[in-house]
Amino acid sequence: MALADGVFAIVLTLLVLDLRPPQAVSNRDLARQLQAMVPALTAFLVSFIVVGNFWFGHQMESHWIRRSDRVHVWITLLLLLTICFIPFSAALIGRNPRLPLATTIYGLNLGAAGLARWLHWSYATSGGRLVDHDIDPRLVRYVRKVFLAVVGLYVLAVAVGWFSTTVALGAFAVIPVAYMISARQSRHLTSLPRTA
Asked: What whole-number distance in Å separates Cα of residue 184 and Cα of residue 31?
């Protein structure tokens, strides 16, 4: 858990490193350079929302997952690998906002992270492997469906990106927000007893 938190914190920090303040000779020059940074700033904000959502989801899953094993650790590392790649794909789309290939790489990165997240939850909950056996099976199925739907939405946004990169980037920002609103596994967690 601490390793995952550390990786998420590092990735969130790395996202901003692609944003370098411009050096200008006049107010007009500074305004022009700041305007040129809008795509990179947009990619940063969208990616911060996305990575923040993955971190939020990981925190919520940790409430339900009580144990771990070797396979679970490897799946967690796979998830973190996909998360660690986001600063690169975010910088790529920030520097090439009108190129569908950049949008595709970014979207596939997010889709791969979503798939790893689905695998993480599915492995842990399958047959009560790493969770309490009294976990509501409806919750388990619902979360699996939502995680797969998120992957599907990212793939759909990739396809849209070949027609409008702007709409695709907007979709990348909205998908995690929509997930967080409907996240059943995170509701009322503070009122649930946590066993040691």
From this structure: 44
Alpha carbons 169 and 160: distance in angstroms, whole number? 10
Query: How far is residue 76 from each of residues 28, 52, 101, 124, 182, measured CA to CA in Å?
Result: 48, 16, 28, 11, 23
Q: How many CA atoms lie within 13 A of 33 on its CB side?
A: 12
CB atoms within 10 A of CB 25: 7
Q: Which residue has the tokens 């975010």?
A: 90
- Measure the CA–CA gap between 155 and 107, rounded to whole angstroms: 7
Q: How many Å apart are CA 80 and CA 119, to the nearest integer? A: 13
For residue range 57-86, list pLDDT tens digits in order. Answer: 888 888 888 899 999 999 999 999 999 899
Q: H or E segment at 180?
A: helix 165-181
Which residues, other chains included, contact 92 with Cβ-Cβ below 8 Å and sequence gap of 6+?
Answer: 102, 105, 106
pLDDT tens track for 101-160? 999 999 999 999 999 999 999 999 998 899 988 888 888 888 899 889 999 999 999 999
